């Protein structure tokens, strides 16, 4: 079986990436007859002098052919006598950097093209840093368009020197710099007579010869994607082996439970195998029942652990800024968990590698951040394990991929433990003869949250209950006075209210929290913090009614743009999906609305 090399082409726009790979495929006779004929016919339209336009083999989108640039990632599969290849031709334009990062995430080697007439550009540096960030350890710098500088050795050596200087700050294992002409084919398949001063391998022979194999002794790691249970007699754990190998009879550890078991059976598709290796999708059956579900990991690595906080290098992919305090979904391996950026250590200047202070991050910027997750997750540093050391951040509102990153350090919290107290929450509840709850009132400004929370508390006290009312506006005057009104600050405002409510519940109190909490993700976070005591009460009064009341004059100011990001006007309110109680105060008096809430609460008290 031939060894497989997965590589990408990258570099600045119009540096000749698609042309290079197209020429490589054409001259290597790796095209079908109909592909070759179609290329020759297409090249007669729009190319200079009817010459073959090799880029057409890769640029399949109409917009790509019209503009002469690559927009999407184009994958091609080919085989020579020596090796099998998968190549991803990635876009060079800054606007499509996210597409380039997607291509880099699968590759073992990168061909970074540099225009000999321009030298190292900012986009060249950006792509080199992204390659290093995404774990590519082998890079070929193809100095293209050498024919336009008359194959001058001095020009080539200058570019080579500039790149090697840049690479001193990047973690590449091998660097090969090759002078080429993608249009004419110099040094692509065979050595060119135009560069007698270049005595090393041409591009294709180099790709055939390079060794990119990872350590064959790497520990076995299988992130679980699915548990297969076709009948009561079979329970198999499915996923792709990310590193190492496994055989029937081997002992594995199931994380995070740390249970041990013996491999009883290995299935690759529907075939029973005695052994499986990295890259293969498998179903593994164990000798005994263990606590494993999607997101768990089967491994032989005794050092693999869980963590809840880590520092990472990230690349911003979305047009929305990456900000401190905003909630995201973090996907590591097959695990997806809520997370928040707690700090931006610095961003990295693409031009010179300098570290620059930053409060937020814009699209295509690289930075180091600290990220905290809602609960411990199985992870590793990227240098130790690529799959469990890399992640993406997903915007919980738009579901766009906000950023990708690699983990640099895990912050262990073993020095901090929850203190067990003798007087428990259950004892405090029994003392007060009530069930501790948090009644979370949500709705637009002017809907009646604070008014109804106040009335409900009065009723509860008359019934002999012990209560505490947390009003969002009042907390803004004290505990949350240092918070602004941007999305991240609002999210932190709600988190703090939820944490206080949880503490009050542990004291045995019924807590009433009145706050707009406009985003579903923030209400979900509050529910996760508070737990089963969380009761969501949606005051569903429509915007027109709320605005007509406008007791504080806030809507009028928002309409005049005197208040930014005002919920319902210039900032969204996401209607709760499954609130426990819904009250519309449009046609109900305060007393009637309070009665409705009290009747609904009867089953919870």
TrEMBL record:
Coiled-coil regions, chain positions: none
A single BP term in Gene Ontology: hydrogen sulfide biosynthetic process
Active site: 517 (phosphoserine intermediate)
Keyword Transferase among record annotations: yes
Molecular function in Gene Ontology: adenylylsulfate kinase activity; ATP binding; GTP binding; GTPase activity; sulfate adenylyltransferase (ATP) activity
Binding positions for ATP per the UniProt entry: 443-450
Enzyme superclass (EC): transferase
Annotated metabolic or biological route of this protein: Sulfur metabolism; hydrogen sulfide biosynthesis; sulfite from sulfate: step 2/3
Catalytic activity: adenosine 5'-phosphosulfate + ATP = 3'-phosphoadenylyl sulfate + ADP + H(+); sulfate + ATP + H(+) = adenosine 5'-phosphosulfate + diphosphate
Keywords from the named record: ATP-binding, GTP-binding, Kinase, Multifunctional enzyme, Nucleotide-binding, Nucleotidyltransferase, Phosphoprotein, Transferase
Enzyme Commission number: 2.7.1.25
CDD domains per the UniProt record, alphabetical: APSK (cd02027), CysN_ATPS (cd04166), CysN_NodQ_II (cd03695), CysN_NoDQ_III (cd04095)
Tr-type G domain mapped to chain residues: 2-218
Family membership: In the C-terminal section; belongs to the APS kinase family.
Function according to Swiss-Prot or TrEMBL: Catalyzes the synthesis of activated sulfate. APS kinase catalyzes the synthesis of activated sulfate.
NCBIfam families: apsK (TIGR00455), CysN (TIGR02034), PRK03846.1 (NF003013), PRK05506.1 (NF004035)
Name recorded for this polypeptide: Adenylyl-sulfate kinase
Annotated source species: Metalysinibacillus jejuensis
